[in-house]
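WARN no homologs supplied; continuing
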Amino acid sequence: MTKRSHSEIMAIEDVRSWVREERKVRGWSARKLAEEAKLAAQRLNKQTDVSQQSVSSFESGHKKSLPSWITFAAAAFEDTPRPASLQMIAASPQFSKTPCTKKIPPENDLRKIFLSLLAPLDFNPHDVWSSKQQIAASLAKRFPVVMSHPQAFVDI
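OK structure emitted
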């Protein structure tokens, strides 16, 4: 049995709270989140065995590590944004536990930044530029989410 440090446990607790909050903001049940996570996985040409039980188990603290489906849940949340009024509240400094002091560039600028970072990489020799554009667009869309809840994306 692997013993986890206090910071690892707290990071998992933060992710647990984040999942519950994001699910409830959208009015989703645990079953609905599982369905949406499966759809997000399919869109990424992946499969996941997430179920209502696994979501409930994670949220209630019965699962002591990050589940494999967490990235698909994050993608499902991104595919179904919060209502605009809640986004404004969530973006306010008094709402954030640890407000970000750095200004995040707009999505189009982030896309250009990430494209430049990906320039030396080769993915598919037949469609390299299209692959890079898709990755950059995805990074630009997800980066603000990562910045608002970085602990959800830290490799534990």
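The CA atoms of residues 15 and 152 lie 5 Å apart.
OK
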